[in-house]
Amino acid sequence: MSLLIVIVSVVALLILLITKLKINPFISFLLISIAAGFALGMPAQAVSESVQKGIGGMLGSILVIICIGAMIGKLVAESGAAQVISDAIMKVFGRKYIQWGLLSTGFIIGIPLFYNVGFVLTVPIIFALVYKYKLPAVYIGLPMLAALSVAHGFLPPHPSPAALVTIFQASMGKTLFYGIIIAIPTIIIAGPLFSQTVKNIRPIGGLTTFDSVVRLSVLPSTFNSFFSALLPVFLLAATSTLLLILPEESTVTAVCHFVSDPSILMLIALIVATYTIGLRMGRSIKEIMRIYEEAIKEIAIILLIIGSSGALKQVLVDSGASEQIGMFFSDLHIHPLVLAWLISASIRVCLGSATVAGLTTAGIIAPLMSTFNVDPALMVLAIGSGSLMFSHVNDPGFWMFKEYFNISLKDTFRSWSLMETIVSVAGLVGVLLLHSIIG
């Protein structure tokens, strides 16, 4: 009976509140957490304590990572570093390999930038190249947006992957490393290869006018731009490598353990970026702090949603319902990674939000991890892949793509929705292949 209550309250009611009643996901998560607690027979005091414990536990370990990630991403965009990275990559690839250049640009700047910021930032770049080379917009733009989507769903410090790393107690460095391994073939399939099938899609009545990309009078150097934007990745790679080769008792190992902590690592990256693409480029500390404040405002609702999802997970654990779910799924004989992907993909299709889909799935799966013989990092990536499944009319990204590229609904489904589906399925295949290799 508890399992039925959980399925109804967590999935059906969540879908009803968000899609039909248009209630904010943060409020929806809170209401469902409380309702599930009472329905599962928890005392009122215990429900309240579980909700508070879940929110505090979730945000306590993830707040710094997401907030600093947003700050770095905003500064990368406002300083012009993202534009410098784009220009540098396009010079390397040229017109003949323009799609590969855009794919590389989207992936590299997609690591520090949140998806919506990355989308708005890269569309003018795409359109400037459309006007310059007279190529179909959807054809050359899809690889870049596929790369942005993969970074958003697979790679920390993006909110959903970062939160999933915390929930499953996975290694941030290993998740990023595995995520990049899976991401590269995924974006090649969903980007340059798939886009060959949509060459004939044309806008209805022309594109939004982006004759040129807005440029600042002073831009950071190419090295400075790459270094500042990707410093978190460099630090993670360096510390993870050193920890593998250094003796456990060495002083350098202790320093690496300290620096590799995600919160410390992100803080170091922020301090460096504040100087390299902030103060060094002539911006005042007051202006830089304004940029950081705006970044926090833009992700406030994401933080609330992540925190409230922690409340739901804690209620499921404290009520004992997670044990019944585990017993039920253990009898289904479905691979845990496939199961997590299926749940995440189903919720994504119903709700439209990749973040909500990922966090809801984590609340169901996390308490069962002790019974699954899978790497937590791969579980993060399986759920992340499922959360990108078949974007359609209930996803804001679907409408952003349709309106910016000015195409019909049919063509949006044929290009954007199918691209997201390919990303999701290819991601799952990559996760399963990695699982078979590493055991």
UniProtKB/TrEMBL annotation:
Main location: membrane
Keyword annotations: Cell membrane, Membrane, Transmembrane, Transmembrane helix, Transport
Listed transmembrane segments: 27-47, 59-77, 97-130, 137-155, 175-194, 225-246, 258-278, 299-317, 337-365, 377-393, 413-434
Compartments, record wording: Cell membrane
InterPro entries: Glcn_transporter
A Pfam family recorded for this sequence: GntP_permease
One annotated Gene Ontology cellular component of this protein: plasma membrane
Domain of life: Bacteria
Signal peptide start-end: none
GO molecular function: gluconate transmembrane transporter activity
Membrane topology: Multi-pass membrane protein
PANTHER family according to UniProt: GNT FAMILY GLUCONATE TRANSPORTER, HIGH-AFFINITY GLUCONATE TRANSPORTER
Family per record: Belongs to the GntP permease family.
UniProt protein name: Gluconate transporter
Organism expressing this protein natively: Flavobacterium akiainvivens
